[in-house]
Known about the structure:
Radius of gyration: 22 Å
Distance between the termini: 33 Å
Structural class: alpha/beta
CATH architecture of the largest domain: 3-Layer(aba) Sandwich
CATH topology of the largest domain: Rossmann fold
Number of helices: 14
Shape: globular
Largest sheet: 11 strands, mixed
Number of domains: 2
Amino acid sequence: MITEPTESVPMPDTLRLLLALLDVAPELERLLDSDWPAVRDALLDIAGRLERGDDAGATGQDLDALLELLLTNTRPQVQELARRILRETRAPESAAPATRGLERAVAAAAPVAEKPSGTVVIPVFYGTDRARGENDTPARYYCGTRGPRSFGIARVSVPIIGRDKGELPAPSWWKLQFSEDPEKHVILVGVQALEKNQFVDQLHDSLAAADERDVLIFVHGYNVSFEDAARRAAQLSVDLNFGGRTLLYSWASAADAKQYTVDEDTIDWSRKYFDEFLRLALTGIGARHVHVIAHSMGNRALMNTLERLEPLANPSPEAATLCQVIFAAPDIGRDRFLQLAEAFNGRAQRCTLYASSRDLALKASRVVHGYPRAGEAGEALVIVDGVDTIDASTVDTSLLSLHHSYFGSERSILKDMASLIALRLAPDKRELLRATGEAPARYWHYGPLLD
């Protein structure tokens, strides 16, 4: 039996309550019977909006309303279950309801001292199968529907002074921020579409001038816009101190919490295009090493491609080495991951899986599918030959309640990923990790952060 590490990071009350409701979803489904679909849809909608960092006040109010609905349900067992969850999820120092709403968020946003300014603009070389958006402004250049495959460069401004590592700040109306500020926010400042040959030539030249002839490819997950995917890719590049060039494959996610099944269908449709994009990075741009970080649902496209690649033992002479492959919170069935892991063993120098027992979006996905996801920890933790498994449950705190994005917003994990990508270190050589169990059932978790 796998034992979860002791919880060391406190969670906001809203998130604690929502995770508890998702955990008891099978019991709620049985008790609610015909009323379950409406409750399930409300849970998934709230989870999606909380994961994206949408209006904190409205999300908290909707969760309050859902809890009240359960507390007043005509079935006594539902009422008792709701009361039990409320008791267990209250912060110990509080006797108030678990959710707070907008007033608490505003109170927490106290002014801070100004810090010295400084930004860097990161060129993110992208491929996408999104349709063109409603206008040519960066935020609307691509939309959430499928389109022809295209290429280009997205330029993202990232504060390097006054921003904590892992933060992906954007303007927030409840902080009275009504416009983007380059000294405070990660901003998509420009999008330039290119023909494929132009894209290859510019990337080749840029890579030749880089400190390292390495590329880092980021593949985003469910409920993500092109703008936010480009911002995350640039933030990772800066916070990992990556010396090569950063690439993004942005598949046509609807960027809508209510369209999970639409995104599922689209990621399947996108697999062919991502396959071509990864092969282009390996063989067509003059790279020496290629690293890939896939997040959430994006892992489905990555794993499908890994299965089809040639093993490292038989590389083509002109190909770059597929070096570090990182499965971050993969939203793919645990059993399916185990099947594919056997098939792609030997395709990369090292494969690493980051999992968590407190991942909000994966808990919601399990409600939809009925089976554990590969990115979950606890009893569902994936341990398989050829993949280093890291249980990040004790450090997956992140800003704006983006728990599903803990891979990019927790400094312990970023520090670990940096040593993995830059130094190619095995888990037993990385200072933050502690081993649990013996091979072949060994996995790793985080010890105290050493600064």
